[in-house]
Amino acid sequence: xxxxxxxxxxxxxxxxxxxxxxxxxxxxxxxxxxxxxxxxxxxxxxxxxxxxxxxxxxxxxxxxxxxxxxxxxxxxxxxxxxxxxxxxxxxxxxxxxxxxxxxxxxxxxxxxxxxxxxxxxxxxxxxxxxxxxxxxxxxxxxxxxxxxxxxxxxxxxxxxxxxxxxxxxxxxxxxxxxxxxxxxxxxxxxxxxxxxxxxxxxxxxxxxxxxxxxxxxx
Length: 218
What we know:
The protein is of the alpha+beta class and 218 residues long. 43% of the residues lie in helices and 19% in strands.
């Protein structure tokens, strides 16, 4: 009697163990399937690019021309030349203040007071011209550059600068990031008066070179 009862208990324990293992496997399988379907944090948040998107971007960048729209006009196509869009004025970095050295105090000698009548007409004309130029600079919040092309290669920009130097124009090559690319700009200036910059722009264009007016906030 006792042996039969003990055999039944052992058989129930084995059956329960088998059922428990099957249930555990089923739960583990369900969890694994759920994890494979749910995106992993910090990894799957960025969408994967397809081959079609890569081909489309490559085709778009093939004919990229940063000289396309500068100062509201289409730039002239030149070999290797690209133009930087200047729809918004560029900020000018403030120049560092020059270091002033302390000088010994010198004995000042009295100078005769110059009367207005003693000034020469040329001096008065120069003072009036300086005053008018200062007033114009205060009224106009921009300085002006004339850009004679922008290039994706530094050698092309240097060739353009040398070409302008032969014609008598002193230009500089500056480097700037645009749309994730480095662009080398050939510019002349800055000039305080817009009229002066426009006159220089016309001279460069008449020599057969590209020229665009670029206003930059002071």
